[in-house]
Amino acid sequence: MRFYVSGGGTGGHFFPALAFLECLIKRGFPALFVGSKRGIEHRLREKVPTESLFLEAKPFMGRSFMEKLRALLSLSSSSLSLYRRLDPTGISVVFGGYASLPLGLSSLLKSLDLFLHEQNSVPSQTNRLLSRFARRVFITFEGSRKYFPQEKVVKTGLPVRKALLEGLKLSRQTALDELGLEDKPTLLVVGGSQGAEFLNRLALEIFQKTGLQGIHITGEREFQKVSDFYKEKGLKVLTLAFSHRMELIYRASTVAVSRAGASTITELSLYGVPALFIPFPHAVHDHQYYNAKEIEELGGGLVARQEEATSEKVIKAVDRLIQFREEFSKHMSSFANPLACDDMINYILNEGR
Predict the structure, then answer these.
(1) CB 295 within 8 A of CB 265
(2) pTM reported for the whole predicted model
(3) Phi-psi region of 187 (alpha: psi -120 to 50; beta: other; left: phi over 0)
(4) What are phi and psi of 140, to 5 degrees?
(5) What is the pLDDT of residue 65?
(6) Domain limits, the chain
(7) For helices 262-270 and 287-298, angle between their N-to-C axes, nearest 10 degrees
(8) What integer is the mean pLDDT of 151-170?
């Protein structure tokens, strides 16, 4: 039995697919990963642990008429070339995004069993389109349930990479020592791949006004400027453009100020780190806001719209998270499912096979 897995265009679709591939390998299943040559998955292709295929898939939503036409043409040619490679006894698992539509369509044409995973509260157009043909739709947030045929929906949570799961064994002191930080309340600020500039500016004010020990992941563009600022002010803030050791970062953090992508929320939840979420205001269908609201209603964090997120309001929210950290952390930890990958595979294997 061979698995065909696709998800990409952005990290939010690619990293859960990557985690699922790791789980398939651990359980001895052969797999082919299908992505786009223009997505983040192609730039990070050396991280894909299986055979991979990158197609000329292009984004459709929010594009001009000519760009949409080119996207449809590339979809047709990509789906046709992929169709020829699919084993009719295989299983397809799609994580959404424009990069995964060719696999979805090719699987339908080849009559392969198709399974979907939706990361966000508001689903991608790809998953909405394919859901009527899928055997199961696995979801992360309860909010997305209403967009799919109810009899197909199973809440498994979001697959998480092996390194993050193994990092749960770390003690906080070990993480602090490796990062060169002291044993005191530590604020994590992380903006993600989109919209980091606003959070970077906000973080400068917060750390300067509070003097909190911090970890600030800035993104490549503003790393040097932000790092120089903290050094000049004598602030104890570990500044990173990006980190491949997020297990250390999460374990060392007391609370966070963050965007509200599904992967970030899930990873914070795994480590029980409560957060003030400031959703990226230009996210498609405002899905980050609805992601964050579900966590706030669960009691695991707080939400502030970007236009309302002044440094004064953010500092008050951070103080509240630190003061009631134990309670927030308990509710935050209840969201993630560290066995999401295995749960998905078990459902797939039990679907009439």
Answers:
(1) yes
(2) 0.92
(3) beta
(4) -100, -45
(5) 47
(6) 3-160+338-350, 164-333
(7) 20
(8) 96
Which residues touch 1 (CB under 8 Å, ≥6 apart)? 29, 30, 89, 90, 91, 353
- The architecture in CATH of the region 3-160+338-350 reads 3-Layer(aba) Sandwich (3.40)
Question: Which of 19-28, 77-86, 305-314 bottoms out in mean pLDDT, i.e. has the lowest?
Answer: 77-86
Instruction: Round to whole Å and give the CA distance between 194 and 219.
Output: 9
Asked if 124 and 118 touch (Cβ cutoff 8 Å), the reply is yes
Give, as one character, the DSSP assignment of residue 84: T
Q: How far apart are CA 246 and CA 337, in angstroms?
A: 18
In contact, 112 and 261? CB cutoff 8 Å: no
| pLDDT for 12 | 86
Q: Is 326 exposed, middle or buried (0-12, 13-18, 19+ CB in 10 A)?
A: exposed
Q: Which fold, 164-333?
A: Rossmann fold (3.40.50)
**Cα 11–chain centre separation:** 6
pLDDT at 70 over 60: no
- DSSP SS3 for 180: coil
Domains 3-160+338-350 and 164-333 share a fold: yes
Contacts of 254 (CB under 8 A, 6+ apart): 185, 186, 187, 273, 322, 325
Query: Residue 351's closest CA among 112, 172, 63, 130?
Result: 112
Give the alpha-carbon dihedral of 328, 333, 336, 339, to 10 degrees.
180
What pairs with residue 213 in β-bridges?
Answer: 186
Task: Tell me the H-state helices in 84-189.
Answer: 101-110, 125-131, 162-166, 172-179
Which residue bears the tokens 């799609």?
94
4 contacts 91 by C-beta, under 8 angstroms: yes
